Amino acid sequence: MKSLLLVAHGSRKASSNDEVRQLTENLAGKATGHFDDVRCAFLELAEPSIPDGLQQCADAGADEIVVFPYFLSAGRHVVEDIPGEIDKKKDELSSVRIRQADYLGSLDGIVDMMLNAVT
Amino acid sequence: MKSLLLVAHGSRKASSNDEVRQLTENLAGKATGHFDDVRCAFLELAEPSIPDGLQQCADAGADEIVVFPYFLSAGRHVVEDIPGEIDKKKDELSSVRIRQADYLGSLDGIVDMMLNAVT
After folding, report:
1. What are the residues facing B7 on neighbouring strands?
2. Average pLDDT value for residue range B61-65
3. Is A113 in Cβ contact with B107 (below 8 Å)?
4. A99 burial class (0-12, 13-18, 19+ CB within 10 angstroms)?
5. Residues 12-31 in B contacting A (C-alpha not used; CB under 8 Å)
6. Closest CA in chain A for residue B66
7. For residue B110, which residues of chain A lie inside 8 Å, CB to CB?
8. What number is the average pLDDT over the span B90-118?
9. Which residues of chain A have pLDDT under 70?
């Protein structure tokens, strides 16, 4: 079973965290056939944490988890903090394959999507 | 003449600002026929500022500027700060039509783009 865990920074503003949760629902609605389970987690300021999110995926039966960083740049959060949070669970979830995907801002499709939105 | 001004938050990390500048170049390379001029500006921590970016567009001959917020959520930056920065130049650039586009995180295409990247 394959899980997608969308990881956002987290905000003090509840509506910003709710935007991430809504996006997660939208992803789940379209992920059929690719992911059996789609969830979100937050690096800080909101729940669940990344370790808790990974555990939720495992509890749901995942043997593979793709962690998708919902971040715009390859800053410390993407390069160090998210891998560090994943590492906290690696031993405990040693039977689960966990892979961190490319972050949002690095995706090839972003230029076309942005231009489509404003032309 | 129509300009696209990509507005990012700005970072203390130079490489994150450079990612925005690279994205701007990629947008410029694909914007032919839609925008005559593509630039970026930063809300804080990097140059040019939004007022300076708008002025650069006007100096390049723009009579229409689309300001694209490269932000993930409808937080204070998108709802208050960017419009506030635009307002600082509205009187001075009264002959230029300036429009703030929907922010990145709100775009319909984002779900499909993300799923394409991980499936």
Report:
1. B41, B69
2. 98
3. yes
4. exposed
5. 13, 15-16, 19-20, 23, 26-27, 30-31
6. A118
7. 23, 113
8. 96
9. none
